[in-house]
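In the previous chapter we treated chains in isolation. Here, by contrast, the input contains two separate entities that must be folded as one system, with a combined length of 769 residues.
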Amino acid sequence: MQLEKFYYDNKIVKAFGYATVIFGIVGMLAGLWAAIQIYAPSASLHYAPTTFGRIRPVHTNAIIFAFVGNCIFTGVYYSLQRLCKTRMYSDTLSWIHFWGWQLIIASAAITLMLGFTTGKEYAELEWPIDIAITLVWVVFGINMFGTIIKRREKHLYVAIWFYIATWVTVAMLHIVNSFEIPVTLFKSYSWYAGVQDALVQWWYGHNAVAFFLTTPILGLMYYFLPKAANRPVYSYRLSIIHFWSLIFIYIWAGPHHLLYTALPDWAQSLGTVFSMMLIFPSWGGMLNGLFTLRGAWDKVREDPVLKFMVVAITCYGMATLEGPLLSLKNINAIAHFSDWIVAHVHVGGLGWNGFMAFAMLYYLVPKMWNTPLYSKKLATNHFWLGTIGIILYAVPLYWAGFTQSIMWKTFTPEGQLKFQFLETVTNIIPMYVSRSIGGGLYLIGALLMTYNLVKTIAKGKFVANEEAEAAPIVKEAHEHTRESWHRRIERKPVTLLVFSLIVVGIGGILEMVPTFLVKSNVPTIASVKPYTPLELHGRDIYVREGCYTCHSQMVRPFRDEVARYGEYSKAGEFVYDHPFQWGSKRTGPDLARVGGKYPDSWHYNHMDDPTSMSPGSVMPTYSWLLDDNLDTTTTGAKIRAMQKLGVPYPAGYDKIANTELSAQAASITESLKKDKIETPPNKEIIALIAYLQRIGKDIKLEQSKTQTAIK
Amino acid sequence: MKFIHYLEKISKVDIYALLSFGIFFLFFLAVLTWVFKSDKNRLIANSRIPLDDQEIQN
């Protein structure tokens, strides 16, 4: 048969590879900075864009979408060409994809630091960027499917299935979770409210972990591990079972992020059951990876690429055993809202994603520059720094999470809470310090790698277009009659795409439809009223400053939480919350019942300098709120947007909203005056105080009413 | 307080959980059946796709 000659495009792989390294370091620096701020709040520089609530989203978005995102594209663009024995479908699309993605990253970094955020974790980017992501993702999809269609290899290797499932699921998750109504160019409100918003957000959030941080990386594992070890994967059968059961089960597991919250109980149970089932495909994949190295462990001793992969796959196994365990309600009751979760995430992030990325880069650079790695010894040092870094990062945080959670729940023999919230934080500060040392070591390791790669690149010669030969696919006359249904699916990428979409779609639909369609599913509480215009502005400031990165608004029905914060949270309290702000971590106390707990002046002073009100507090200062003027030009637009979303403001309310706003601001200024604080009523702090004083109060009104008139 | 439990309001909500599990179980059986019925030699050949362009040591 006539062999065809063609060239693999290495230039695009190089570009994505460089971006991976650069954004990896940027993302890690942001993470380290955020970690230091937790015990040294002045590291915020008392400057809004560099304060924890904004740096933390910069860190998470940079790591997920910039570092891991570029790592995925590096690996996909390299392996897809080789697995399909063809060049990418279109060089132009490749470069539109590359520059589009980097532009998104740059605008993400800028807008997040400026405080433009939707307030939904890992989906913080505002609507224009959301649209850009969709477009670039479509470009990537066309390029990928174009390549697959013009391939010279009949069978689609399992890695490609993982890429296809990734593409289709991420598209679905991103679109469904990003439904939002624009108010201004950089401000929008989530289409969903309260419980429904929470369900959609964590369906998205969990599956962002599944389909952005896991499945594409598994695809990379199924390609690069056999390459590096020079032997086929342990069991191809297992990889097929791994693939289908993983994508099917993962999509259901989201509600385990919302255990003991106001989410309907049946959805919580469904999340738990499917999370437990996830152990099997995850471990199937892990064992398939590790068994590939059977009889080749001597190579692991020698080869830095394999070293990184072994630890990465092991961390994948650890994290995917821990994940299901954390979704058991009794374990979740201790771990949730604590640093345990942060440790869990970083075993996955630093161990699985980071180490897979490093392994891939150590493999690719010598290959594409056609020269051995500059220094194996340096790579081994990187490996050890990284591994020790992960341990120093994770172990103290597990300790911290467990300790703090137990302290939260401790009562004295008299039945009082034993510890103030702040005591439980200051107690674990040494753990926070150790965590940042671990993270620092990991970062130094990444810098060593950068040096090593730069040196390798300097001595090698880049092969921009790698020559290859393969025979084209020849149509067989009887191929359709004898083959099984799956054989047909595997050959047809579009069918595979549709099947994957159906498989992941079933989970999403069965989970969400009941919560959406049945109106009574979110019971309304008569006393819960829409926010006043001033409170709405205050809430937007709360979102802008990323308060949800440290404070939850969800009192779980536990004795200690009810004793510490007040009545547990009900689904009906959140019906006007676009977006919901339940949070996922308590570095500070829960705020679901903070309304009316302190005088206005307390909040004023506390925002100016938190330690003045609670000595030893690790909260950063927010003094700019005292100086900056509230922008009331958007009030009308905000009210109209809320009306469109079904919030029952009376018709024409947008016209008089600012009058009401001024009246409420004046009354707060008045109350501050009584405590000898002089401030004009048009400052942002006034709006924030209005919001904070409102949170969770509706239901208190209801209770006092029912107490007076018991049925 | 006018707080109503969900399960009293969605009639037969358990059908969703049962249906979910049922669908998965059947799906899983189908994949298993297919995997174990498929031709071993072809699977071996497929698993070697990434290695096609290089010497295989063993």
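The helical segments of chain B are 6-9, 14-37, 40-47. The two ends of chain B are 73 Å apart (CA to CA). Compare these points with the single-chain example from earlier in the chapter.
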